[in-house]
Every structure is written in structure tokens, then in C-alpha cells.
Design a protein that fits this description.
The complex is a heterodimer of chains A (about 80) and B (about 100).
Chain A (H helix, E strand, L loop, with lengths): L2 H20 L4 H26 L2 H27 L2
Chain B lengths: L2 H26 L3 H6 L1 H20 L3 H33 L6 H4 L1
Helix pairs in contact in B: 1-3, 3-4
Classes of the chains: A mainly alpha (about 80), B mainly alpha (about 100).
Chain lengths: ~80, ~100
């Protein structure tokens, strides 16, 4: 197991903890946990791409980085105005 | 173990440590605005460290450029997202993001 995969596994454990926070408690705390979770999932994808030596996973990480921002922003706007 | 490998492992270890710190801060912070501060290390420091580790391994090939692109995305977009989230938290709490008359005094 390479350092990349070890780091990815450690991040996945952190993502699990953040996921628990994102699924319980007040709504703003959940959103912030979701935002941190999105970043960590993207980083885990980069680490897995390097660990498994797959170029295509990097593309997924780039798309996820952009989509995480867009979805979080839409979610936050809904929370501000309607929810 | 080469110097390059040691550098890569150190960068990855640091990136994971920062992510763990952010997760701990997320749980331990008192309120939402305090909690929001812990978004920054996870989305600015960790991606840059991971991108540097990829560059250290691959030099500037396609993978390294994509990893740097991911880091650049977070570097540029995180402040916007933090501001929008803080604004939403304030609006939900006070009804408006602007200072009230009492807060101005």
C-alpha cells in the first residue's frame, strides 16, 4: 500500500466523521460539514487517482471541485431565502 | 527511501493532519461562524499540499496540472463560499445581514 492510498484511507475516515456531523444537528452546522466534506472527497479522489495510477480519476476530481462549489452555493442561497 | 519519497510522504501527512484538524474544529467550535473558520484550512492548505505532492512525483505533466487546478479552484472559490455561508447564517439568525440600529450603537 503506497503513501497515497494510506493518505486516501485516512481521509475517508475523516470524511466518515464529517458525514456524521452533516447528518445530525442544526441545519447550518450540517451545511458547513457538507462543504468540508465536499473538499475532502475531492482530495480523496486526487489521492486515489495517484495511488491507483489512473488519469481519468483526476478529471473526476476537477469536475467535483467545481460542482461542490456550485451545489453548496445554491444550497446556501436556498437556506438564506426560503428554507 | 529517496528524498523525493520522503518529501511526498511529508506533504501528504501534513495534508491529512490539516484535514483532521478541520474536522475536529468542526465538531468542537461553539457556533456556526466559529465553525466556518475551519473550512479554510481544509479547502486551502490541504489541496495545495496534495497538489505539491503530485508535482513532486510527476513534475508538471497532465496529472500535476489537474491537481493544481483542483487546488486553484478551492483557493479561489472557498472565500466566496465562506462569505455566502456566513451571510446565510446571519440572515437566518437576525433576518438581515446588515447591522441593526442597536448593533450600530
Amino acid at each position: 500500500m503506497t503513501g497515497w492510498l494510506v493518505a486516501a484511507a485516512a481521509l475517508l475516515v475523516v470524511i466518515l466523521a464529517v458525514g456524521i456531523v452533516a447528518s445530525t444537528g442544526p441545519v447550518m452546522r450540517r451545511v458547513i460539514a457538507l462543504e468540508i466534506g465536499g473538499v475532502l472527497v475531492t482530495l480523496a479522489l486526487v489521492l486515489l487517482a495517484e495511488g491507483f495510477d489512473r488519469d481519468v480519476y483526476f478529471d473526476l476530481a476537477v469536475v467535483l471541485a467545481a460542482m461542490t462549489f456550485a451545489t453548496s452555493l445554491v444550497f446556501v442561497r436556498f437556506l438564506e431565502r426560503w428554507l | 527511501m529517496t528524498v523525493q519519497q520522503i518529501l511526498i510522504d511529508a506533504l501528504l501527512g501534513l495534508a491529512v493532519l490539516v484535514a483532521v484538524g478541520s474536522a475536529v474544529g468542526l465538531v468542537a467550535a461553539r457556533d456556526d461562524l466559529d465553525r466556518l473558520h475551519y473550512l479554510a484550512p481544509a479547502s486551502v492548505v490541504s489541496p495545495v499540499l496534495v497538489a505539491l505532492a503530485v508535482v513532486a512525483r510527476e513534475a508538471f505533466d497532465g496529472r500535476a496540472i489537474k491537481a493544481l487546478l483542483v487546488a486553484a479552484f478551492f483557493l479561489v472559490l472557498n472565500p466566496i463560499l465562506s462569505q455566502a455561508t456566513a451571510r446565510a447564517a446571519r440572515v437566518r439568525e437576525h433576518g438581515d445581514w446588515r447591522l441593526s440600529q442597536e448593533e450600530r450603537r
